[in-house]
Amino acid sequence: MSRKILVCGSVAFDTIAVFEGHFKDHILADSVQSLSVSFFVPTLRKEYGGCAGNIAYNLCLLGGSPVPVGTVGGDADDYLIYMRKLGMDTSLLRVLPELYTAQCYITTDLDNNQIASFHPGAMLRAAENDLTGHDADWAIVAPDSKDAMFAHARRLHAQKIPFLFDLGQAMPLFSGEDMLEMLNMARILSCNDYEASVVVQRTGRSLADIAGNLQAVIVTHGGDGTSLYTEGVETRVAPVPAEEVLDPTGCGDAHRAGLLHGLSEGWSLLDACRLANVMGSLKIASKGTQNHRPTREDIAAMLHKHYGVRLPA
């Protein structure tokens, strides 16, 4: 029986347009003070996204039982139907009919440069979505509105539900004091190497020192694998080479899902990190955050091939 995981974070639509040219040929440095440009974008796609949505999707690939916790607008019917078809429990997704679901509009050029606009919509009221009384084996507080991240963390802490803190795109919102407050409630900190350097700078504490008060600190290094800090020791976890490198967007969410699944199943931290690396490698070989379709057997084969670890049936 898979164990319930509360996935607190943003639920959003990503609208991605591709400009078949180069921004640098149209945005001139000496004219940015009066910028007025238009790009012809023959390729357009709308994707399901948001940190909670992406993490929950990857947990479903692993056979887990994610419960996304977030707020969506009156335009989210298709996303909710899609989630339920995947087997997700959507009971903790609050629908605010008068608002739009959070939306990110991204235009990318042939150099993979991006111009993005983000409308938070219903996400701004995510703190009102109270998870009190809902039990789980593990949880994650992933990027969302700052108020919601703190509200969810305090409710999880009060209920003694262990949670992973994922700073991610919310990093600019957090001061050093904010980070320390969150770390006093979290069980594990997970971040990429740049985010880790910001945490160290803003808190004035080393990663080893932070890990001393947590179960672990886990830092991803892209194609160079993962660092696991626990019990005063840093362990490097070798990466899983990707078949292709097509799109890094959502790799962090896939990685968190692997961590959470391993933790909820009672695995060692090392093996949970190994599964996380497998999930990140699978994601980067696909465009979009929820378009990779490995079977559980595919995931199990990669985990055993690269680490000698078997995914339980």
Summarize the structure.
The chain is α/β, with parallel strands linked by helices and 313 residues long. It has helices spanning 51-61, 77-85, 146-158, 176-183, 193-203, 207-211, 251-264, 269-284, 296-307; strands spanning 4-8, 12-18, 43-49, 65-73, 93-96, 102-108, 114-119, 138-141, 163-166, 188-192, 216-220, 226-230, 233-237.
Structure overview:
The strands form two sheets. Strands 5-4-1-8-9-10-11-12-13 form a nine-stranded mixed sheet, with helices on both faces. It has a four-stranded mixed sheet with strand order 3-2-6-7. Strand 12 (226-230) and strand 13 form a beta hairpin. Helix 1 packs across helix 7 (251-264) and helix 8 (269-284) packs across helix 9 (296-307). The radius of gyration is 19 Å and the shape is globular. 43% of the residues are buried. It has a single domain, classed as Ribokinase (UDP-N-acetylmuramoyl-L-alanine:D-glutamate ligase), CATH 3.40.1190. The protein has helices at residues 51-61, 77-85, 146-158, 176-183, 193-203, 207-211, 251-264, 269-284, 296-307, and strands at 4-8, 12-18, 43-49, 65-73, 93-96, 102-108, 114-119, 138-141, 163-166, 188-192, 216-220, 226-230, 233-237. With 313 residues, it is an alpha/beta fold. It contains nine helices and 13 strands.
Task: List the keywords.
UDP-N-acetylmuramoyl-L-alanine:D-glutamate ligase, single chain, 313 residues, 9-stranded mixed β-sheet, 13 strands, alpha/beta
